[in-house]
Write a structure and sequence with these properties.
The chain is mostly helical. Helix content is 55%, strand content 6%. The radius of gyration is 17 Å and the shape is globular. It binds glutathione.
Length: 227
């Protein structure tokens, strides 16, 4: 699997790649991750596009985290499912859209400066140009104080907070792809920044701790570019 890496190749911070790392662990499938940088488009040209994650499984190449989850469920039906049934699919899909359309913005506002510092120097001009075009402003204008980002994120998380008071995981009693979609956004920030945007007493904090502990602490052990 081609996996987005920072200046330090051990630092992996793509929210979409984290969905797949967790999904593979959920299924008990081993993976070799290949560090990839934003500008290394040639290295994944075999997938016919320019974004990671790209998963190669034998002769099959799949890109896009959602397509990868569907591929894994279809290909390994004897393993624990990532997305189960029509209702499970709706929950996972709502969660992925919510993660990328609602949560990503306040999260990025809080950590974009740290993110920029953590990425490979060769990626920085590309990152700045592409993201400033997307955001419609300089990265420095997009960044806000940690307290302000935490407040915005706190409002955006209110439905998840309410849900996590009722059940331990977004998916219910056990985590599944819906949780991994949400968790990816948190691993994006954790990989590059020491800023804490979630209060310790927030049920979302406890959920994040549970997620960090899954699969023998896979996510917790992942190196961070902080300090
Ligand atoms: N819809 C895709 C999105 C993948 C994506 O945006 N990946 C980012 C890394 S987080 C990327 O490869 N960016 C490369 C670029 O911006 O050129 C998925 O779910 O996998």
């Amino acid at each position: 699997m081609h996996d987005l890496a920072g200046a330090d190749p051990a630092v992996r911070f793509s929210p979409y790649c984290w969905r797949v790392r967790m999904a593979l662990a959920h299924m008990g499938l081993d993976v070799e991750t290949i560090p990839w940088r934003f500008t290394e488009k040639d290295a994944i040209a075999f997938s016919g596009q320019g974004l990671v994650p790209v998963l190669r499984d034998g002769d099959t190449v799949v890109h896009d985290s959602w397509a990868i989850a569907e591929y894994l469920d279809k290909t390994y039906p004897d393993r624990p499912a990532l997305i189960e049934g029509e209702q499970g699919r709706a929950l996972a899909s709502l969660t992925r859209h919510y993660a990328q359309n609602v949560l990503a913005t306040p999260m990025l506002k809080g950590v974009v400066g740290d993110l920029f510092k953590a990425i490979a120097p060769g990626d920085q001009p590309y990152f700045r140009e592409s993201r400033e075009k997307r955001l419609g402003m300089k990265l420095e204008q997009f960044q806000i104080a940690p307290e302000a980002a935490a407040a915005q994120l706190g409002v955006a998380l209110s439905p998840v907070r309410a849900l996590l008071k009722e059940q331990p995981f977004v998916n219910g009693r056990r985590p599944a792809f819906a949780d991994y979609c949400l968790f990816g956004v948190f691993m994006w920030a954790r990989g590059v920044s020491a800023v804490e945007l979630i209060a310790a007493e927030d049920p979302v904090h406890a959920w994040r701790e549970r997620m960090l502990d899954l699969f023998d602490g896979l996510a917790r052990k992942s190196p961070r570019a902080v300090g």
